[in-house]
Amino acid sequence: MIRLANVSHDYGGRGLLKNIDLHIAPGAFHFLTGPSGAGKSTLLKLCYGELRPNDGDVELFGQPLSALSRDALADTRRRIGVIHQDCQFLDHLSLAENVALPFVATGRQVPEADLRELLAWVGLAGQADSLPPTLSGGERQRAALARAVIMSPEVVLADEPTGNVDPEMSQRLLSLLVELNRMGTAVMIATHDLPLIRSAKTMVSARVLRIVDQGLQSAGS
Ligand code: ADP
Ligand code: ADP
Description:
Elements: E1 2-9, E2 17-24, E3 29-33, H1 40-47, E4 55-60, E5 63-64, H2 70-77, E6 80-83, H3 95-104, H4 112-121, H5 137-149, E7 155-159, H6 167-182, E8 186-190, H7 194-201, E9 207-212, E10 215-218
Parallel strand pairs: 3-8, 3-9, 6-7, 7-8
Antiparallel strand pairs: 1-2, 1-4, 4-5, 9-10
Helix pairs in contact: 3-5, 5-6
This protein binds adenosine-5'-diphosphate (2 copies).
One adenosine-5'-diphosphate (ADP) binds at residues 11, 16, 34, 36-42.
């Protein structure tokens, strides 16, 4: 679904990512690890078309990124759910409104029952009307997960989803992502939370990819 071939990217100056090959297939569960600053967030951005690589080819659902117009890219990105590191909520909108935003952006109303079901799934049914600044770290991450999946994406990309939450909440988030994967959604999680990876391996056949010396190594599955 998402394929990077011989992709290199940096922001000017020293190199960052070099000759990366990556394929996220339907139903895959990948972890992306590597030291802070190795380029994990950058690699995720390349995977959802937020960044165009300096070199190499990115293919999203069979279409070369380089050939996608702005509008076509916007459509394609609805097939990819993204959980941003900082969640990126609009603080003046309620949790439910924030979760519904991707839907509203397509000009349609999200069916009320679907929204309720989704909030219940992430355990936030009681917080639908809360404003984001009043939520705890774990609640924000679960709301970000709900927003990422409201369009029923084929793949979910998560950037350090457990960065600001306690181990119990990390486990809960992981369980939701595993459940999503069992229903057929591909998942890639950028993290340096090693206990999280160990725990995931008891639940799902996960592949661990590591950025080492600007390249991508497979640490097995
Ligand atoms: P990671 O997610 O592994 O911590 P990032 O992809 O966030 O790594 O960042 C990799 C490197 O690229 C870091 O040194 C970071 O400072 C730099 N970087 C990230 N985004 C930008 C940007 N927009 N402009 C310039 N440098 C950037
Ligand atoms: P955690 O320990 O998981 O970080 P918090 O102690 O931050 O949780 O929050 C616990 C509860 O209090 C949550 O339900 C959250 O929504 C609520 N809460 C936190 N901050 C505020 C606030 N400023 N106003 C209203 N409710 C809040």
